[in-house]
Design a protein that fits this description.
two-stranded antiparallel ribbon; 39% helix; homodimer; alpha/beta; globular; 11 helices; 8-stranded mixed beta sheet
């Protein structure tokens, strides 16, 4: 499958690297390719240029080119800027595509822990679906840290839960297949895209569990 | 231990019944004892009068009397009315007491699923602690349905997680002991009372999992 990951942060690189490793034709989209390649202020990890050198199967493209390439597009941008980034991809490049939204609308303006920019009776997943009505938005993976997204076996016996929200059942089935390739075995379909209000509002609890455990390497398992 | 459960709904009765069963001297507090005893519009379960007849070790008292009796007081009232109910108990009857808050500030005014009356940068647990600064507030059990609160063995192998939030370490230790009596083995102390923002904001996800599973008999286990 041709996969376009929008966003060059840790989440985007982790997802793109894993998709390429699984044999998917994978590109990463960024607003300004040359600026991204010359960026040296990495977030503690390698620069994007270093990362691309180590992942030669992945190509870096501008946003419209990445969107045009992908059959499946992943929003791995900062949640506070996702609508703007996806506008850069272009509605025409998202129309009919499965758009996997893994972002959270975190507001760091008042420090840590962040609050949510949208919540309660709306959410980022819904905002994206409204803004790009011809995209087939599926919210998932936003409840775990990047390393766990692509390798759920890193926590416990690998049997923790990942959630799906979206209005398009075939799109959710396609995404569930990709999640299974990542190693997910317990995939819980919560329903339509409004159910992403639930997984986005889980973030404040995730942040407190992170604080109590001093590590983001965890997940929850739904047991019943 | 002398335990006063404030609230005669399913949550209050379930907690009070279990505390009495464990040998604690237990009372239930209600605003108007005679009105509560004559109430016939049960929420699908037995009336309070029937329930008291079946649980003769539990006494029904008015709010100040219940608060005055309890060494440990449990807020099991409707979250939208908790501050008002606890005002009825009286600050003087809560001073120095461990006040276990199991309520959620749910807003059903726009139907189901409810939204939250307070969230993000404040929560009900903090509101209660601010309103009753001499009480030792511990938030817990608000992430599971009543039956699971007092019998975690009902889900899976009983090893799911319950959370604690509060500013007073000895109060949290006392509550952890009571939770262990209920059968909880995985008790995760998240930190001070502000961490209750996390567990209260989990409710929207809890409601969507409820919707997907068609049953409230579940819980999450934190795995890492």
């Amino acid at each position: 499958m041709r996969i376009a990951v929008i966003g060059t942060g840790v989440v985007g690189r982790t997802l793109a690297g894993r998709c390429a490793e699984l044999g998917h034709e994978t590109v990463v989209g960024t607003r300004d390719v040359s600026a991204t390649l010359s960026r040296t202020d990495g977030d503690g990890s390698a620069t994007v240029a270093d990362w691309l050198a180590a992942n030669p199967a992945v190509r870096l493209l501008d946003l419209p080119s990445a969107g045009g390439f992908g059959e499946l597009v992943v929003n791995a941008t900062n949640g506070a800027a996702s609508l703007q980034s996806l506008a850069g991809v272009g509605a025409e490049n998202l129309a009919g595509k499965v758009l996997v939204d893994v972002a959270n609308p975190l507001d760091f303006s008042r420090g840590f822990p962040p609050t949510l920019l949208v919540k309660d009776d709306d959410c980022l997943g819904e905002q994206i679906q409204r803004e790009f009505p011809d995209a087939r938005v599926v919210k998932t993976l936003n409840t775990v840290t990047a390393a766990v997204m692509v390798d759920p076996g890193q926590v416990g016996d690998g049997g923790t839960t990942v959630f799906l929200s979206g209005d398009d059942a075939p799109a959710k089935a396609l995404v569930a297949g990709l999640l299974a390739e990542f190693g997910w075995r317990d995939i819980l379909d919560l329903g339509d895209i409004t159910t992403a209000r639930g997984t986005e509002m889980y973030l404040p609890l995730w942040l407190r569990i992170l604080g109590a455990r001093n590590s983001p390497q965890f997940n929850i398992r739904v047991v019943g």
